[in-house]
Amino acid sequence: MNLLAVSDLNTDDVKHLLDRAISLKKRHKRGIPYQPLKGKVLGLIFEKPSTRTRVSFEVAMYHLGGDVIFMSSRDSQIGRGEPVKDTARVMSRYVDVVAIRSFDHGTVEEYASHSSVPVINGLTNLHHPCQVLADILTILEKKGGYKDIKVGWIGDGNNMANSWIEMAAIAGFQLKLACPEGYDPELAILDGARASGASVEVVRDIKDAARDADVLSTDVWASMGQEEEREKRLDAFKGYSIDANLLKLAKEDAVVMHCLPAHRGEEITEDVLEGRSSVVWDQAENRLHIQKAILEWLVVDNG
Ligand code: CP
Ligand code: NVA
Hints:
This protein is an alpha/beta fold. It folds into two domains: 6-128 and 287-301, Aspartate/ornithine carbamoyltransferase (Rossmann fold), CATH 3.40.50.1370; 131-283, Rossmann fold, CATH 3.40.50. It contains twelve helices and nine strands. The protein has a five-stranded parallel beta sheet with strand order 7-6-5-8-9. Helix 5 packs across helix 6 and helix 5 (129-143) packs across helix 12. The longest helix is centred in the last third of the chain and has 22 residues, at 280-301. 50% of the residues are buried. The structure holds phosphoric acid mono(formamide)ester and norvaline. Residues 123, 158-160, 219-220, 223-224, 259 line the site of norvaline. Residues 50-53, 123, 131, 259-260 line the site of phosphoric acid mono(formamide)ester.
């Protein structure tokens, strides 16, 4: 079993992962050890930089009693063109589970099709499932549930937006995404979510997405790998920011989320990111707890 996209999960899987994350978080806070992954090794293969995903996976694995091997494409044969299918077969002989961060989602799919151990997507240009699982955990904690809420997404129709759309289809919340023209989420993902009855809408007006929202979320205007488009994107995304005025349109108790890293003054203002509605640090912490639930689910429950 793999976790390459949120759509690999069903409603029960999401509920299970959230229940386990909550329980593992409680255990951790009380200092009660839980080491079901003793003797197991996680391979991290990262072709892009990372702070949260890498560290939360490493710490999760250590807390669960296992070990980690980190490989960047720079210092492995992947960077010198060794085929993905060869790497996958060799790594399967050494490690018990792999998390990959790559550019093309097809690379992770190809890797998974040649791996005999579970593969986790640690971000591709198309999806970021582990982040959105941490996000829904954060919403559950802050709002007590996620079914009858409105989430307003402001900005790029990127990997995060795509994973939010897939999560809306499973978790059942209303999702309104305000994206500038030309920067919509992946059409096939939108169509798939709508076909399954999800309440997902793409609009141009950020006020429309923010009005009466329980959650406002955003992400950088230029993702990793889009550095050359930065100037063009700065122009295209002008106004697609979460600021104090936009926040006033959301519900009084709305929370503001950001997967981080944040670009203050672009997709979010400093005062909102640091303000009373922001839950970004709890959101980042929850990466650790949900990674544990994911690792346990893939290696222990389905191993
Ligand atoms: N949110 C997130 O995935 O952060 P990193 O790029 O630091 O892993
Ligand atoms: N959309 C961003 C998310 C970073 C966690 C990127 O892909 O760079």
